[in-house]
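Run log, item B.
One chain of 370 residues. Sequence copied directly from the ordering sheet:
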Amino acid sequence: MALDQVTRRHLADAALGVVVGALVMTAAAVGDGATPADYALITVGSLALAAYRRAPRRVLAVSTVTTTAYVLHAHPGTLAALPVLGAVHTAARAGHRGVAALASALFLAAFVTTDLTARASAERSLLLAGWFLCALVTGLADRNWQAYLRQTEQRAMEAERTREEAALRRAGEERLRIARELHDSLTHSISIVKLQAGVAVHLARKRGEEVSPALLAIQEAGGEAMRELRATLEVLRTDEPTGTPALLVERARAAGLAVELTVSGEERPLTATVDRAAYRIVQEALTNAARHAGPAKVAVQLDYSTDDLTICVDDDGGADPSRPPTPGIGLTGMRERVTALGGTLHAAPRSEGGFSVRAELPLGIPEEVP
């Protein structure tokens, strides 16, 4: 049976501890003066490396203490430093640079005190100091590399998401364009045909003449064509938002986002264009807060005045005013919607921290006729 990724990772970590312990024990067996207590210290310090992913600082402490005790008691060679080197590297990789440097200094100080007179001891100590420096540097480099890989993966996922959103937006705009073209080009013509056929039927009956079956068929076909055209236009307009900002807030709460909604002023029905823009602005702002703000609180405020609707979506996340974000597809689309209605949009990090979206939409926008 194939092992899952977590199990394989645990086995690899355990193998690391076993290999390091075997190397240090082999060196201790070749040398002189190692006691059962020394082998026990080597075992504990080496096998502790198996837990470096879950508790790097604890592993560093255990490996440093046990290996230092072994060095002070048995005065081994430089190979005895392998458990501490591995723990220093993994601690630096996890971001604990100060603790890793302190552990390195303590172990080196203990190693130097085992033989202060021999010139070879000084050379070994310098060599060991270089090893510890390399362990720190490679740990930090590995950490930076992993962070770079994570950022690259996130950017790829974000690019894929924005491409999908852009494709959906373009498809929706194309459907609306087709709906307008169908409405403008066909509805008028079909209505005229149906109207003229109806007038002809009415006049024929008024004069007492027999109504032509073809004329009745034209009248019936015109009515059926109008019904089918309306159904087609409804299908093409299925990308219209189905809900309200309050419903968006409830959905965000259900997803785990701490959101509060405040409505001020006299709430009243909006035209389709303004209502659609308000829905999309709140939707995009909540999506960005959920994705970028982390465990933050979000405040959504709708302010109805006589002439305009003001939408404010503020969060207290980690956005920094000194590092404004690069506008993506969402913010760009939001700005285009507001600009098309003659409104204003401000979307930027707040001075007190977090991000703020403020849109002012004029309420005197005429109803859009497709």
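Observations after the first pass:
- The longest strand covers residues 258-265.
- Confidence is low (pLDDT under 50) at residues 365-370.
Flagged for discussion on Thursday.
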